[in-house]
Amino acid sequence: MGDISVLFVCLGNICRSPMAEAVFAHVVKQRQLEGRISKIDSAGTASWHVGNSPDSRSASTCKKHGVPVNHRARQVAKSDFNQFDHILCMDESNLSDLRSIQPKGSKAVVELFGSYDPEGELIIEDPYYGGKDGFEHNFKQVTRASEGFLSALKLI
Fold first, then answer.
1. Which residues are CB-contacts of 105 (< 8 A; sequence separation ≥ 6)?
2. Cα dist from 155 to 23, 47, 62, 82, 139, whole Å
3. At 42, is the secondary structure helix, strand, or coil?
4. Residues with Cβ < 8 Å from 11, sequence gap 6 or more?
5. Angle at CA 29, nearest 5°, toward 147 and 77?
6. Pairing with 67, which of 32, 75, 105, 136 sits 20 to 30 Å away (CA)?
7. Catalytic annotation present for 55
8. pTM for the structure as a whole
């Protein structure tokens, strides 16, 4: 199968996608699949938070579960569509935005990360305006979807 590269995308790249990036990297490490996954990153469709650290609630939720977070927000670039094999986004708005800027003939498969959730929870809702419970819920979702994605790739 070779090396696989994955980009996680949400709106601002401070809540959901850096959490998905961190959790996926953690699961990959736990499953000893670092040799199969060549690159893991995250980005946002909007530029509002470029250069910022993840939302403190997102980072603290990850840390509570023993998942390290080390990311600075960035915006999706057209080059990402050829640098990554998979671009996994959090909701329908992200999906629409990504498809509208995806260059024709680019290699990336763009889809909803939640489509890999074995519990069928398709949308990973933005927890930004809510309380910590939303971040905890997102953590559970991205953990399930990470396992589901690796399973779909036939790596586990």
1. none
2. 16, 34, 24, 22, 21
3. strand
4. 44, 45, 46, 90, 93, 94, 126
5. 75
6. 75
7. no
8. 0.97
The yes-or-no answer on residue 16 being catalytic is yes
- The DSSP line for 69-83 is ------B--TTHHHH
- How do the pLDDT tens digits run along the chain, 156 residues long? 459 999 999 999 999 999 999 999 999 999 999 999 999 999 999 999 999 999 999 999 999 999 999 999 999 999 999 999 999 999 999 999 999 999 999 999 999 999 999 999 999 999 998 888 999 999 999 999 999 999 999 999
Is 85 one of the annotated active-site residues of the chain?
no
Q: Which of 15, 16, 55, 144 is catalytic?
A: 16
Which member of 55, 97, 117, 126 is catalytic?
A: 126
Specify which residues 87 forms β-bridges with.
Answer: 7, 110
